[in-house]
From TrEMBL:
Residues 441-537 are annotated as: Disordered. PROSITE patterns: WD_REPEATS_1, WD_REPEATS_2. Residues 445-454, 501-513 have a biased composition (Basic and acidic residues). This is Protein RBL isoform X6. Residues 514-526 have a biased composition (Basic residues).
Length: 537
């Protein structure tokens, strides 16, 4: 679609399913930082990387030790590494370009989500959120893990162990806890089962601030916007909440130290809540007031202007889109398949969703042409009208422009070497080369097809040597040898003989007919000669 005829007043969000991707049974998805590659974790433990520009498979990562479903997938900042978590309690770090496994670590519990540290180009730390255990920081080089605190004591100044819930049979179990890094990876924001957001310095495990959530419901998802200015939480009370981050980017730890000193000697739990009120402030709440649905995989758009969430109801594929002001602007309805994961493209208005059946649907904007949106003086005509042009309207250089002096300095040197920074990726380290595309590698034919090709070629050579099996009666009674199309040269190599044209075949057929007629005329003569010989004898 030509960008010059797109109406800028239309909402910059997807509207219809443009295409779907199919490869095995996919469970989770993630874009790289530029949105040029899409990684999907499959049910068989493999990870397939799609080229989002061509919608073709660029690479498939598979470890023979892992055959369990992939639970989450995460790119490194510059796209050279991919971290996947699997249902067999493993974490696997891949090198994307070579397709080789860097390391594999087995945890005590099944990780539901794993996120690489966002501040490094080759991260060695990751944040894992297991099914029945507190979130932990895992060192991918050594395999060591450090549990994070998920609660603060109300009576003492110390911290209490992670919260446990007793089930009806008396067995103590953990509530799954959501956590994420902030934009530059200096802090971890954790949502616990008490309905609180904990700000944790993961280097020493200290809780620096606590932000209570209205209602106190269990936090299921927590995620930052790309610019780091907004934090999204999804709770069990079926409400998506947006918080504005009040801490300065790249300087959060020092600011927290100053806030801690200013609070003085106050009860530890109260002090943490006071500091928390100066870290995050509630900005918006989103919910479906009529159906009261639970939400699946909520997230921000690439620019942070839109909030998207999938319906967790079985048998429906609905995606809700709100603007940041809190208005519901669109409900996307897909096939009758439950939605299990979704992601918004980092740059363009695309939403990618995963269905329960393992298909990946690509939602795109339905553009409509509106020429007057870019040219206010453009007039759309209902029917043809006669137009009388000016005398110099179609001249190469109109007289009105000849009088004007050129505003461009033709002597100014134009810089064509330096690269301008993209505002969307303003924090990019230009010294670090970013992996945006993967080279296409042709796939080998299946083994069965190769065997068939080898068998047919051997038969062809055998028939060429014998001559009899491949001889068949062709059109017009001609004897044709299929193997004769292969000729052997002086070096012993076989080369293909050119197939004769239809004209040549017609001429050959005429020659055969003429020769057959002449042979028929010659037959009686030969017979009479034989009779004369017999008589004389």
């Amino acid at each position: 679609m030509n960008a010059s005829i797109i109406d800028p007043l239309q909402g910059d969000f997807p509207e219809v399913i443009e295409e779907y991707l199919e490869h095995g049974c996919m469970k989770c998805i993630a874009f790289n930082r530029r949105g040029t590659l899409l990684a999907a974790g499959c049910n068989d433990g493999s990870c397939v990387i799609w080229d989002f520009e061509t919608r073709g498979i660029a690479k498939i990562l598979h470890d023979n030790e892992c055959s369990s479903p992939i639970t989450s997938i995460c790119w490194s900042k510059y796209g050279h590494r991919i971290l996947v978590s699997a249902a067999d309690k493993s974490l696997i770090l891949w090198d994307v370009m070579s397709g080789k496994k860097i390391t594999r670590i087995v945890l005590q519990q099944t990780p539901l989500q794993a996120r690489l540290h966002p501040g490094s180009s080759t991260p060695s730390l990751c944040l894992a959120c297991p099914l029945s255990c507190a979130p932990m920081i895992v060192d991918l080089n050594t395999g060591n893990s450090t549990l994070l605190k998920v609660s603060v004591s109300e009576t003492s100044n110390g911290l209490i162990p992670p919260s446990r819930n007793k089930s009806s049979d008396g067995i103590t179990s953990f509530t799954p806890t959501a956590a994420c890094f902030n934009k530059y990876g200096t802090l971890v924001y954790l949502g616990n089962s008490k309905g609180e957001i904990l700000v944790i310095d993961y280097k020493n495990g200290e809780v620096r601030a606590v932000v209570p959530i209205t209602g106190g419901s269990v936090v299921k998802n927590i995620v930052f916007s790309r610019n780091g200015q907004y934090l999204l939480t999804n709770s069990n009370d079926r409400v998506i909440r947006i918080y504005e981050n009040l801490l300065p980017l790249k300087d959060e730890v020092r600011t927290l130290d100053e806030l801690n000193e200013n609070c003085g000697d106050v009860n530890n739990s109260e002090k943490l809540k006071v500091i928390g009120s100066k870290c995050l402030i509630l900005f918006r709440e989103f919910q479906d007031a009529i159906t009261k649905v639970h939400w699946k995989a909520p997230c921000f758009s690439g620019d942070g202007e839109w909030v998207v969430g999938g319906s967790a109801c079985k048998g429906e594929h609905k995606i809700y889109i709100w603007d940041r002001a809190g208005h519901l602007v669109k409900i996307l309805e897909g096939p009758k398949e439950a939605l299990i994961d979704l992601a918004w493209h980092p740059v363009h208005p695309f939403v990618v969703s995963v269905s329960l059946n393992g298909f990946v649907y690509i939602w795109a904007k339905d553009y409509t042409e509106n020429w007057s949106a870019f040219a206010p003086d453009f007039k759309e005509l209902e029917e043809n009208e006669e137009y009388v042009e000016r005398e110099d309207e179609f001249d190469l250089i109109p007289d009105t422009e000849k009088v004007k002096a050129p505003d461009v300095n033709e002597d100014e040197e134009v810089d064509i070497i330096s690269v301008e920074k993209d505002a969307t990726f303003s924090d990019s380290d230009m010294s670090q080369e970013e992996l945006c595309f993967l080279p296409a590698t042709p796939s080998r034919d299946p083994l069965e097809q190769q065997d068939k090709c080898a068998e047919s070629s051997s038969k062809l050579l055998d028939s060429n040597n014998t001559g009899s099996p491949s001889e068949e009666a062709g059109p017009n009674g001609l004897m044709m040898n299929h193997a004769s199309s292969l000729l052997e040269d002086d070096a012993g190599r076989f080369k293909r003989k050119r197939k004769p044209s239809e004209k040549v075949l017609e001429l050959q057929a005429e020659k055969v007919k003429k020769s057959s007629k002449s042979s028929k005329l010659a037959k009686p003569k030969n017979k009479s000669l034989v009779d004369q010989d017999n008589g004389s004898g």
